Amino acid sequence: MSDTRRRVKVYTLNEDRQWDDRGTGHVSSTFVERLKGISLLVRAESDGSLLLESKISPNTAYQKQQDTLIVWSEADNYDLALSFQEKAGCDEIWEKICQVQGKDPALDITQDPIDESEEERFEEIPETSHLVELPPCELSRLEEIADLVTSVLSSPIRREKLALALMSEGYIKKLLGLFRVCEDLDNREGLHHLYEIVRGVLFLNKAALFEVMFSDDCIMDVVGCLEYDPALVQPKRHREFLTKTAKFKEVIPITDSELRQKIHQTYRVQYIQDIILPTPSVFEENFLSTLTSFIFFNKVEIVSMLQEDEKFLTEVFAQLTDEATEDSKRRELVNFVKEFCAFSQTLQPQNRDAFFKTLANLGILPALEIVMGMDDLQVRAAATDIFSYLVEFSPSMVREFVMQEPQQTDDDVLLINVVIKQMICDSDPELGGAVQLMGLLRTLIDPENMLASTNKTEKTEFLSFFYKYCMHVLTAPLLANTAHDKISKDLQEGSTKINPVCPGEEFNATENHPTDKAYNFQTAQLLALILELLTFCVEHHTYHIKTYIMNKDLLRRVLVLMNSKHTFLALCALRFMRRIIGLKDEYYNRYIIKGNLFEPVINALLDNGTRYNLLNSATIELFEFIKVEDVKSLIAHIVDNFYKALESIEYVQTFKGLKGRYEQEKDRQSQRLNRYRRDARSMDEDEELLFNDDDDDDESEAVEKSRMEEDFADSYGKYMEAKKGAANGANGANNNGKAAVSPPASQAVTPNNSSASSVKTVALPATPVVKTAMVGLVDYPDDEDEEEEEEEEEEEQSPRKRPRLSS
Predict the structure, then answer these.
(1) Which of 42, 121, 126, 325 has the largest CB neighbor count within 10 A?
(2) Contact (Cβ atoms closer than 8 angstroms) between residue 249 and residue 340
(3) What are the phi and psi torsion angles at 226 (to 5°)?
(4) From start to end residue, where is composition biased (Acidic residues) (predicted)?
(5) pLDDT number for residue 19
(6) What mean pLDDT value characterizes the chain?
(7) Closest by alpha carbon to 423, among 411, 441, 409?
(8) What per-residue string of b and e applies to 413-452 under the rule 16 or more CB within 10 Å gives b?
(9) What's phi and psi for 592, nearest 5 deg?
(10) Is the pLDDT of residue 483 over 50?
(11) Exposure class string for 786-795: b at 16+ Cβ within 10 A, else e
């Protein structure tokens, strides 16, 4: 019993004036030798670690709120709160605090928070001003009361004194009694004074006063007082809205009366804060911090109470997925779950984790799979919001559920395919829902949040699943709108193209442009969203998307959109190609070259003419990237096939630069080939000259070394004989090595017949032999950079480039 009574949550107030949950544990009050005083200790219930160790200081202002909260400040910007599970535990600790400070436990605050500036200011004020005396609660004294309440707001100490006076005399209920009298008498002046009084009491920012004002028998009178703003000609009708317009819908009957009362109270207090009270000024924004905390803790309590009622939530999900449930009832159930999830955002991470795990165990994802496929737009929109909460909380949880589905169901009803179809079939002209769903899909397929530490195979397994079961659904509208062989026929007949994903929806195919099938604005926006997602895949999925693009010839289909009259769609297609080229992947480069896929891009650039717009700039940037990064295979392809069409573009130097790169590469290759064709005879002559020079040097020193000269001459003669004997074999070997890189014409200038005959009989070696033949060649000092590039290019050189450069 004591464990339950002492069970608390520890909260701290962050810089945004929001309460952060520091954990759940059990509180005790113990003498701590190190702190030399009685202290509050909270140890975590999970592992016994110390969550809080706070000495009860005699001068610290402790405040009890809502019977189960104790709040205090330990520094200027460090507020703490203990939220007790039971009132008895709160009372027990409160009595201990009051005992240490020598205060009466009947009070809800132990100290008057006075900072130095306040103390100095009030030293100048007579002693009698510290005592706030409330005028009698009478109609004739309302103006005096309003002036008093307004005057104390600038002084923290006087706010405290006034709050104590209002509480001790039961003044609030007396004021609300006067409100009913004024309203019966239609006393507008008195009602205006009551507005100022109630607004001022709210700005006192005291939880004890809120407990009275927001109780069931007072809150509607408080709302009534706030209707009579003196700045308004006619009073607002907030009570009428709260009692008649706003309906409390119990999708499943709530049997807990305390829970029901807490829900009503929270809704009405939130309404007061958001709707009735004017937006506070910079100087007033802290006046309502306790009101924000009041709402926050109420929401935490509501979520906790609902979460603990397993019978209630089980019934909610059972009716949600029951085919016999009426549409109106299902709509209310979905809206309830949506609001439930919204309330959960007030929870701290560890509590939110438990909350969503509870929903997952109850079957939230299978339920969403059903309701997201329904025809009711409101139900689908609410289900999308719930799905976004789940994805934001744990993408891995959603992925894990999705990957288990193929064993149990058809591809058409997979959750991700349901989401994709809802994105594609969004009827909103602005595609608001589609944009939201596209963001959720991107989160699910983002490898960055696929944590290897949790599941080492999650990335591989999920991406394989996605490309196998879902990618064809995502790309279906794109492929349907870029089918070359059907466009002209459809357009000639003025027919419409059925959306392959959304049965019953048609694409308008009566546009005048020969490659625009459906491009009313909404369809163009949809294709732009799909392209944005595919571009993301290119950047992050490498192998899977590369295989898909090449198998489906996807880039060719995408580049059909370069002809769209919607420039933003053409730019999306261009961006897709730019991301592919940006990878500098030679497989992609060969695919682009083989398919001649620069043609639609260059045609779009030429069709754009001299217009200086985003399409022009983006296209030129694409070619500038190729030039700067020196992507040799693409440079050669562009110059060989398109330079004549592009050479007239002189307002940028991009295309001349591409031509220059192309010529430099041709010259470099030509010099390299010529260098490798040096014949064996010239090499031997160089070697003999080298030895002759050495012989001359030795003769110039022979005056004092005649014996050494004779020995050297003998050995040199023997060396040259051996050298001439080995020269023929060496020449033949050199020619064999050169045959792999030299054209047939080089045989005509070979002086040695034996080497020429060896070329005919030896098969051409593979490329690695070329590297071996090049090792023993002379290094030229001016070619150091070229040889470094040469090693890098060997692996990346495309098959198309080799025969051109060696011909």
Answers:
(1) 42
(2) no
(3) -75, -5
(4) 684-701, 780-796
(5) 81
(6) 77
(7) 441
(8) ebbbbbbbbbbbbbeeeebebbebbbebbeebbeeeebee
(9) -65, -45
(10) yes
(11) eeeeeeeeee
Strand partners for 33 = none
CB 302 within 8 A of CB 27: no
Q: Which of 247-251, 676-680, 696-700 has the lowest mean pLDDT?
A: 696-700
In terms of Cα–Cα distance, which of 551, 545, 534, 654 is closest to 602? 654
What's the 3-state SS for 644-684? Answer: HHHCCCCCCCHHHHHHHHHHHHHHHHHHHHHHHCCCHHHHH
**Helix and strand element counts for the chain (H, E):** 38, 9
Reported confidence tier of residue 706, pLDDT bands at 50, 70, 90: very low
d(CA 197, CA 200): 5
Residues 6+ apart with CB under 8 A from 300: 83, 346, 347, 351
pLDDT value, residue 798: 38
Please indicate, yes or no, whether the overall pTM of this predicted structure exceeds 0.85: no
Instruction: State the DSSP code for 139.
Output: G
3-state secondary structure of 263: helix
3-state percent helix, strand, coil for the chain, nearest multiple of 5: 65, 5, 30
Residues 309-361: tens digit of each pLDDT: 878 888 998 888 888 888 888 888 999 999 989 888 888 777 888 888 888 88
Rg of the chain over Cα atoms, rounded to whole angstroms, equals 42
Contact partners, residue 293, CB within 8 Å, separation at least 6: 19, 71, 81, 207
pLDDT surpassing 50 at residue 795: no
The answer to whether 221 and 176 have CB atoms below 8 angstroms apart is: yes
CB count within 10 Å of CB 156 equals 16
